[in-house]
Amino acid sequence: MIRSVVRGNGAALPRRTMKNADFEGMVETSDEWIVQRTGIRQRHVAADDETTASLGEAAARAALDSAGMTPADIDLIILATSTPNNTFPATAVEIQNRLGMHHGFAFDMQAVCSGFVYAVATADLYIRGGLARRVLVIGSETFSRILDWNDRSTCVLFGDGAGALVLEAQEGAGAITDRGVLAASLRSDGAHKDKLFVDGGPSTTGTVGHLRMEGREVFKHAVGMITDVIEATFGEAGITAQDLDWFVPHQANKRIIDASARKLGIAEEKVVVTVDLHGNTSAASVPLALSVAVADGRIKRGDLVLLEAMGGGFTWGAVLLRW
Ligand code: UT7
Predict the structure, then answer these.
(1) Which residues are registered as beta bridge partners of 160?
(2) Which residues form the Beta-ketoacyl-[acyl-carrier-protein] synthase III C-terminal domain (predicted)?
């Protein structure tokens, strides 16, 4: 059977970093509160000339380089983002143009923090359906543009960045030992909209709006939703937590990551944590975490890797793949 195999990955971060202490003069907060409640120590913040498209393009080029490919090899670009450059056209199409690619097709995928997991699952269907052979899957965000910088309960949590994967159709045996995407489960429930949303949009206010979150409410649901969808993915693949080499979760809060791993019985040393470095970068968080763990030699070819995310909507999902 056809499998969607990872051929390359890449990442891009804005030049400027903001440490927790940099917020102390802006809102009533402290490095101690932010570290204790979230695990975040710093985040990258985009300058005016750094956008979702430019960061996404840089991550895509890095992923293509690591795959030994050029844009000519790609059939489809899926960009996961909630912070597009424009309301339309899709920022994926802008990235396609920036890459000098005028064949194939590109579209944005909007599932907030779960966007990258949704995009990998979607790319896998295009590949297995025979509609694309090589897909660039990008998560790129500039959440700094939609933050209310006077709201201490949200402005300290998020950061900007981008990450990308190149997936390629390869023949597999249909076994759990195959490389590539092995299982995926996606969920959403719009009943939770008011707990995490942006208070503007083209069809309502005609403005971009600002991110609003009832953090405690999101936290209450997060661990249960994450563990449910992961258990469904394990069931589909016929594996248990012990079979995993690496758990690469969405990086929103170290306490959510730790509680999810503990509930699932995933050993601490198998969990990739980058929330301290990047903050919550929404759809970019999983590919950014992947890029760190691949660059430092933790994730190697043949490793069994579980991706997971949960965010606004609510949306949540998991993807199991062999690197
Ligand atoms: O990526 C999408 C998914 N998003 C998430 O997963 C986020 C989920 N939620 C969280 O990560 C946590 O709920 C937060 C980090 C947002 C907040 O942590 P918490 O332990 O749930 O704190 P809390 O909201 O219950 O607030 C505790 C206190 C409050 O003060 P009072 O009411 O106890 O007097 C807040 O006003 O902390 C206060 N607070 C702050 N204090 C200092 C809120 N933000 C800050 C801040 N600095 N930045």
Answers:
(1) 142
(2) 236-323
Distance 210 CA to ligand 1 centre (A): 17
Residue nearest to atom 18 of ligand 1 (CA): 37
Q: Is the CB of 37 under 6 A from ligand 1?
A: yes
Please give the model's pTM, rounded to 2 decimal places.
0.98
Task: Determine the topology of domain 180-322 in CATH.
Answer: Peroxisomal Thiolase; Chain A, domain 1 (3.40.47)
pLDDT (tens digit per residue) in 235-289: 999 999 999 999 999 999 999 999 999 999 999 999 999 999 999 999 999 999 9
Nearest to 20 by CA among 4, 36, 3: 36
What are the start-end ranges of the H helices in the chain?
Answer: 31-38, 52-67, 91-98, 115-128, 152-155, 215-237, 254-264, 275-278, 285-295
The domain ranges of the chain are 2-171, 180-322
Span from the CA of 137 to the centroid of ligand 1 (angstroms): 32
Region for residue 84 given its phi and psi (left: phi exceeds 0; alpha: psi -120 to 50; beta: otherwise): beta
Residue in 44, 192, 250, 278 annotated catalytic: 250
Class of the CATH domain delimited by 2-171 = alpha beta
Amino acid at 210: H
List the residue whose alpha carbon is closest to atom 24 of ligand 1: 216
CA distance 233 to 49: 40
What is the whole-number distance in angstroms between the Cα of residue 225 and the centre of ligand 1? 19
Helix axes 285-295, 115-128, angle to 10 degrees: 80
Q: Is the CB of 111 under 6 A from ligand 1?
A: no
pLDDT at residue number 261: 98
Amino acid, res. 203: S
Query: For ligand 1, what atom is nearest to the CA of residue 255?
Result: 11
